[in-house]
Amino acid sequence: MRRLDLKLALLVSAIAAVGFAAQAEERYGIGQPATQAEIAGWNIDIGRDGSNLPPGSGSVERGRVVFSEQCVACHGDNGQGGIGDRLVGGQGTLASAKPIRTVGSYWPYAPTLFDYIRRAMPQNAPQSLSNEDVYAVSAYILSLNGIVPQDAVLDAKSLAAIKMPNRDGFVSDPRPDVHDH
Amino acid sequence: MSEQTTDKRVREASRRHFLQAGAALAGGSAVAGLGGSGALAESGNNLPPNVPEWMKAPGAPMGSQPYGAPSTYEKGVIKNISKTLPQYISASGRTPLQDLDGIITPNGLFYERHHGGVPTIDPAEHRLMLHGMVDRPLVFTMDDIRRFPSQSRIHFLECSGNPVYTKPYGKTASDLVGLLSCAEWTGVPLKTVLNEAGLQAGAKWIVAEGADAAALTRSIPIEKCLDDAMLVYSQNGERLRPQQGYPLRLLVPGFEGNMNVKWLRRLKVVAEPVYSREETSKYTDPMPDGTAREFTFYMEAKSIITRPSGGQKLTAKGFQEITGIAWSGHGKIKRVEVSVDDGESWQDATLQEPVLTRALTRFRLPWHWDGTPAVIQSRAIDETGYVQPTLAELVAVRGVNSFYHNNAIWPWRIDANGEVSNAQA
Question: Which positions fall inside the Moybdenum cofactor oxidoreductase dimerisation domain (chain B) (predicted)?
């Protein structure tokens, strides 16, 4: 049977914290505490400011090797795209009739590149690259876009410090944006 | 490859599929699938005054179908999936809206969109972790989740790229807005589970992550999490299908499909969005001036006539029921207006009860087709007073490259032969 565990004090602070007039709700005492080790293993998301980026580093040079071994089959020899998205070019096209949206032209934050490649790429074997190789292949893709030099070595600090060309290109949702009849 | 190209190919292939499968659809009614006339073999042997074959011998015994399947005569009613995609790991399949009645989508026909394939998850080894800005980080088993007080609610789900703004536009209702389905969902309100962990001051967003090969990640505003968001384990009475997130998914009613993270394994309470690839590179809405709208969550009011609709054929003059579906991410559908004269005049359709919040609403209008060409269309008005716009009105503001959140009116043209096609194509 469920254990009713009413902790009003905690609840009130939680409600105050988020500023909602929610009704006091029971606690049921369901679930196990998550240990630090469990959280560390799963907590893979990287903030736009680079928070939670792991230790390690990788060079453009190493990234070229990783890319040619693990990415070109789907993204093309030079990141021009194929089965997978185009990863290079398009800067200056976003306001044109044929906008080309890539990591280089569209993505607002460089740490997201590390986050996405680590969690989802290569598509046939996600979460198989070492952190060093994720830094390296991120550096390589950024170099293909002219965002870091050919001799760059990226780590948590330098990746977070990159200002992407389209950083300020996003606006909040203004809808409804079409006037009523 | 880009989602734009995927969609185009899906549409083209689905049209080919429709032409092949059309024969099996709606045969015998006054609205037939294209090419449907004479497709059903009528030997006459089973018609009055003869006794039908199926009355002269016992049918299939009990147990021949331990999990039931539709009649073999309905085998053309399947998901609308392109046969020519370069890859099927990040891809979508559409609900055949024009073949369905009512508001509930059968589980086997529910639309699919996944970014890293469909994982096979053992529920005994699935965990939901809740951490970040909480007093007590917790891990839940599926048994734990099912111990919480449960709720069932009917809501639609719609992909925000449904359809894109550019030609060629689809031929059928499914081609156009088939990334849309509706089900009765059972699970636990997210706020109940958050309360177990205790939200801390400054908690503003929750990052939800899937246990699929894309580890798909979206940030959900805390207001929604404390409002009607749910952790869902059942759909239309049975456990979720693998394609819908088995054993656990997030449901954020009225928000774009991608945010309803499937195979949910982690919720992290944070102060600001994570700006994942799925909320920056994708699911942002490009504008003509080169900017893009971010965090465009709501699916605005929309409707479509599903019968008669593109690819079907009116086989008789006289009475024709016009029917379709309407929905809004902002709440209930208040009114649906239908025009049968190319937008000159509009009349109120009847709404089928119950009209539910953030659910499909079925509408109907009796009509007499006089056998001359006509253009028919519907527009939805929701409880906020919002009126579904035309494609031209949307394009005037957003251009043709905005990709997401196209909720335009889609008119159908009926020619003198009764053939129905997309009037915008």
Answer: 297-409
pLDDT at res. B227: 98
Q: What is the ipTM of this complex?
A: 0.89
What residues does CATH 3.90.420.10 cover in chain B? Answer: 97-291
CATH of B97-291, one of 3.90.420.10, 3.40.50.720, 1.20.1250.20, 3.65.10.10: 3.90.420.10
- Angstrom CA distances, B370 to A20, B36, B279, B310, stand at 57, 21, 49, 19
SS3 call for B184: strand
B266 → chain A, closest CA residue: A42
Residue B260 and residue B180 in contact, taking contact as beta carbons nearer than 8 Å: no
- Omega of the bond leading into B373 within 30 degrees of 0 (cis): no
Asked if residue B24 lies in contact with residue B74, where contact means CB atoms within 8 angstroms, the answer is yes
State how far the alpha carbon of A95 is from the alpha carbons of A81, A171, B392, in Å.
Answer: 21, 14, 20
Question: Could you give all domains of chain A from N- to C-terminal order, each with its CATH number?
Answer: 56-161 (1.10.760.10)
**pLDDT tens digits along A53-88:** 999 999 999 999 999 999 999 999 999 999 999 999
User: What is the CATH number assigned to the segment(s) B302-422?
Assistant: 2.60.40.650
Interface test with A, best of B115, B148, B196, B255 (most A CBs within 10 A): B196
Task: Read off the pTM.
Answer: 0.90
Evaluate whether B419 touches B34 at the Cβ level (below 8 Å). Answer: yes
